[in-house]
């Protein structure tokens, strides 16, 4: 493996020794996964952004490893989160695309997850923030009753959630199995159709909105913002969009304080910078990039707060922090928040083409940083790593084994996560969009194969707006020579293309990578 930094021979040996001896010595790290929502490769100053400065994340990167080939599994939220938690590609399981407001639990009880694996290894486990993996049995969430199954049935000891994503109804918190602060005399109803002809929505009451919609997102209005889906009731339980980040930090701090003396796994699942981008008033207008940039700064603030808490509790040297994103960037994702108008020279996808919804690199190649103070030698790595590898890698670091039949596509990259000088990342990785349409990306070394069974590529041009562009069924790119995937070289390298097609087909059809 090539690393962009150099270590002395003594340090190499020491580093290798300590990586392999952690689990054996019982010196398992706590694990904090910080997942941003829709954050692009080029959105952070440590990844080259110059129109915005993200000092807290930059510091995290300077104290750890910044990966230049870090990926999430999919270019939308639900399949990436499914793959991240289960360690299995989402395309193996139907029904793992973007979840609607009333979706039932997508990860069934009994499925092993990063949380259940670490819990079996003696960890306290918690998730705070955006869930978007469904709640409840076959009929969906029982908003006024017990919201299960959910995170607690797949290995989390506690949860404090935004149930779906905040452009979908309802705007309430879920704590463990219940909607928080729900008044039984004002039951919460959530549905796909308007509950009555008089129910105000984003079309009938458009003039009253504080943030106008551009496509979709014109159903029930809450806090001056119309959403996807309808709801009534639950008034006392509803939150303001502006307060989400502060709440995530408050609840995460409680979790960290409570579990400071035992091994823990915290999944901090930010809603920033997903639409509706409505950060707290103190962040509004502070970036040059409009609300999208303000939300990036709110996310950066959250990272700083979490680091402060770890420091205060003397946990920085006992905790592996991993920062990642659930998919690449999008500018207009349904609200008129001036993301396009204020973009200037900022490139949210960095040097890459595509973004959210796309299997071009911009859809899944995203910020990926690991930090474990005192353990990781800071640097930059070009190893290919993915959020799907958390299961096997964290299991290894925790000194626990992956249960038989679990996490079929997760690789133990713990050595790469810790910057081990001889560590190898992945040889190959399957990328998907929202799933279910036969669209795949396949990275193998420097090569990238695109497969479009429907011969359409989504969102090739993330900088302006969404586009469905006609494409051939297969394309091949040389990422070393052409990271922006502009020159399809499939005719020049037919043998490479055939090899990659065969490997991809076999990975899809064999049902597992390992
Ligand atoms: C799309 C929404 C988009 C966003 C996305 C999910 C419309 C027109 N578009 O269907 O706004 O919510 O779903 O984003 O409704 S994700 O990051 O959670 O996958
Ligand atoms: Ca997302």
From TrEMBL:
EC number in record: 3.1.6.8
UniProt keyword annotation of Hydrolase present: yes
SUPFAM superfamilies given in the database record: Alkaline phosphatase-like (SSF53649)
Location of the Sulfatase N-terminal domain: 29-399
Provenance organism: Aporhodopirellula rubra
One MF term in the entry's GO annotations: cerebroside-sulfatase activity
Protein name, as recorded: Arylsulfatase A
Family: Belongs to the sulfatase family.
A Pfam family the protein falls into: Sulfatase
Enzyme class: hydrolase
Keyword line: Hydrolase, Signal
CDD domains: ARS_like
Signal peptide: 1-23
């Amino acid at each position: 493996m090539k690393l962009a930094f150099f270590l002395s021979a003594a340090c190499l040996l020491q580093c290798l020794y300590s990586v392999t001896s952690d689990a054996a010595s019982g010196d398992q790290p706590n694990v904090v996964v910080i997942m941003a929502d829709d954050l692009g490769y080029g959105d952070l100053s440590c990844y080259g952004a110059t129109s915005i400065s993200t000092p807290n994340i930059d510091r995290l990167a300077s104290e750890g490893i910044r990966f230049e080939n870090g990926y999430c599994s999919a270019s939308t939220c639900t399949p990436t989160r499914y793959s991240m938690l289960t360690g299995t590609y989402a395309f193996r399981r139907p029904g793992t695309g973007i979840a609607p407001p009333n979706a039932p639990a997508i990860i069934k009880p009994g499925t092993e997850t990063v949380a259940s694996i670490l819990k079996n290894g003696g960890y306290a486990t918690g998730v705070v923030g955006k869930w978007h993996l469904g709640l409840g049995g076959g009929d969906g969430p029982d908003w006024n009753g017990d919201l299960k199954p959910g995170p607690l049935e797949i290995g989390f000891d506690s949860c404090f959630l935004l149930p779906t994503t905040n452009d979908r109804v309802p705007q309430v918190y879920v704590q463990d199995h219940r909607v928080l602060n729900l008044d039984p005399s004002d039951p919460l109803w959530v549905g796909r159709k308007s509950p009555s002809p008089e129910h105000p929505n984003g079309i009938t009451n458009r003039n009253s909105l504080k943030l106008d919609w551009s496509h979709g997102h014109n159903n029930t209005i809450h806090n001056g913002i119309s959403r996807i889906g309808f709801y009534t009731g639950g008034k006392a339980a509803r939150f303001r969009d502006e307060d989400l980040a502060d709440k995530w930090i408050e609840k995460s701090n409680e979790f960290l304080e409570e579990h400071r003396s035992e091994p823990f796994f915290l999944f901090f699942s930010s809603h920033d910078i997903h639409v509706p981008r409505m950060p707290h008033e103190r962040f509004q207008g502070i970036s040059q990039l409009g609300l999208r940039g303000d939300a990036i700064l709110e996310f950066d603030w959250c990272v700083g707060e979490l680091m402060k808490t770890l420091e205060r509790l003397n946990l920085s040297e006992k905790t592996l922090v991993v920062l990642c994103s659930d998919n690449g960037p999008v500018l207009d994702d349904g609200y008129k928040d001036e993301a396009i108008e204020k973009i200037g020279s900022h490139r949210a996808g960095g040097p890459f083409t595509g973004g959210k919804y796309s299997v071009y690199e911009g859809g899944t190649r995203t910020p990926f940083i690991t930090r474990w103070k005192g353990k990781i030698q800071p640097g930059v790595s070009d190893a290919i790593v993915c959020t799907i590898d958390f299961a096997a890698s964290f299991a290894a670091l925790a000194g626990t084994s992956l249960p038989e039949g679990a996490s079929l596509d997760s690789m133990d990259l713990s050595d790469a996560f810790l910057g081990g000088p001889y560590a190898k990342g992945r040889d190959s990785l399957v990328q998907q969009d929202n799933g279910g349409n036969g669209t795949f990306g396949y990275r193998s070394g420097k090569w990238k194969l695109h497969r479009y069974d429907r011969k359409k590529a989504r969102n090739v041009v993330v900088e302006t707006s969404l586009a469905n562009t006609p494409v051939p069924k297969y394309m091949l790119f040389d990422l070393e020579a052409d990271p922006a995937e502009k020159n399809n070289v499939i005719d020049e390298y037919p043998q490479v293309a055939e090899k990659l097609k065969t490997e991809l087909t076999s990975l899809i059809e064999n049902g597992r990578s390992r």
